[in-house]
Amino acid sequence: xxxxxGVAKFCxxxxxxxxxxxxxxxxxxxxxxxxxxxxxxxxxxxxxERLRRDQGMIARQIEAALAAGDADLARxxxxxxxxxxxxxxxxxxxRVDSAVAADRAPAQVATRFATGLVTGQADDLxxxxxxxxxxxxxxxxxxxxxxxxxxxxxxxEADHLVLGLAAxxxxxxxxxxxxxxxxxxxxxxxxxxxxxxxxxxxxEGLAKWAGRSAREVVDAPALQRAVADASLLRPAQTLxxxxxAVRTEKAGGLMRFAKDVGxxxxxAGTRGAFDALKVAENPKDVARAAKLAEAKGGQTRAIIKxxxxxxxxxxxxxxxxASWIFSALLMLIGFVISLKSGTERLTQxxxxxxxxxxxxxxxxATKQPQPPIGAASAVAQA
Length: 382
Hints:
Blueprint: H1 2-34, H2 39-53, H3 57-67, H4 71-83, H5 90-103, H6 106-119, H7 125-136, H8 139-153, H9 160-178, H10 184-198, H11 204-217, H12 220-228, H13 235-244, H14 252-279, H15 283-296, H16 300-307, H17 318-366, H18 373-381
Helix pairs in contact: 1-17, 3-4, 3-5, 4-5, 4-16, 6-7, 7-8, 7-10, 8-9, 8-12, 9-10, 9-11, 10-14, 11-14, 12-13, 14-15, 14-16
């Protein structure tokens, strides 16, 4: 009995220690699996877990962003730190404020706007404003169609994705004016995807999907004919010819994708959209990024910087999380079984002790000396 009780106590202690060690992981795993379809909650859980292990993570990332001249990312990281109640030094926040102010200086903004308008390339809000302005006035899309179309016509390597997006953009631009801006998110999204492609900020998987979608939307022979006669000096004729080459009935998927990208750009900025396009592998990832941007706004860039594609969905296998939950359940079951076994052994030991005491009392009572029979009779007669 003593050996059995010792084994039960040992198993109880082991189960309790293992359960205490596994419980935080199991609780985190359960929360992550519940939030796997909500990018905002999923990112909050992951950021909180990383900060629990490393409080200086965000400060180091801010320093790296400032060293790289990315004031926008530094500002996003400061917002993330505030959201998670991470204290930053006053000196560091002043440096971020100074960098942001310099980045938003009127002269800098005007230069980037003009660059985006003329070249059609942008990596921030000011440059994107220029590219969107050019696209809304058709100049930008016609420029891209003519450039890539001429490459195609002369046998040179052409970017079919940029060509298809520009052609679709021309059709969407007309809808933007007709609907008084209702199609503006899609218009901005198409421009963002074009710019991301030009500067290499779109993932290979997403580029392949968008390229296939653009080919389905565009009637290639008709577009080649339109490009052959296209000219910036005849924008109206070029516009009509390119619009005729766009199969609008097949543009639903591409337009939904473009709208999601436009939402990201609106909430998280141009670079936030570029970061999302870099880590997203398919339109579903982009839709998740749009939900994240709508919930987190300016924090989006920082979240994607820290988590990568993990900000959008579970990149670690669900089995890894389920294994922690399963292990914690096993430890809990082991603890309960050990507690039950130990309780039974203690109870049995207590009962056995009572029985032994009762037996001893009974034995002692039988061994007490009895008076002689004659003496007892005399006492009775008296």
